[in-house]
Amino acid sequence: MRNPPDALMLFAAGFGTRMGALTQTRPKPLVPVAGRPLIDHALDLAEGAGIGRIVANTHYLGAQVAAHLAGRRVAISDESARILETGGGLRRALPLLGPGPVFTLNTDAIWTGPNVLCALRAAWRPGMGALLALVPAGRATGHTGAGDFTLGADGRLTRGPGHVYTGAQILDPSGLAAIPEEVFSLNRLWDAMLAEGRVFGLVHPGGWCDVGRPESIPLAEAMLAHG
Known about the structure:
By secondary structure, this protein is α/β, with parallel strands linked by helices. It has helices spanning about 40-50, 60-70, 85-95, 115-125, 185-195, 215-225; strands at about 5-10, 30-35, 35, 55-60, 75-80, 100-105, 110, 130-135, 140, 150, 155-160, 165-170, 200-205, 210.
């Protein structure tokens, strides 16, 4: 079993409904920011971290994502029959990812500053259930709300305001086997780990922009221009 992690799950199956007309005929991972598809920005992080195995799940207009990734070092976990959400999607992809802890990364965000995947790898310790990359709510560009988690002095997380989950983490997926549903969110696994005190946070010191809506695209491009 690998430790530190060396496999990455890219979440690329969503419908992107908040993007409106931009995702009528193309999937959200292919929406361009600063002239490049969102998923290519995510792959830059993976390649910069030297991750050995990368898997992307696909559903909505998934053939476009698969065609875009053809010839690249990315395996496809096909969810065309039924979208499985983050938890079900990760569990479906585990045979492609291999055993042990994995990185997961949403494809609808833009980052500046140190490579977040490298930082997560450096901070990961055996015994952790999950290590989530966070930004303070006041620095979460394109995102509203008071935050998802409260960060304790010992690095452990509890549900509450203060920090926003960025969509990047390292996770021990072994607990997925105990969840009976086929379609479910990774929140199910987090909740079990939170109860055990096994979910930790790492604050990203650079910029982060949630590109979930069209109006976030110029915010992300401005962040990149000044990053």
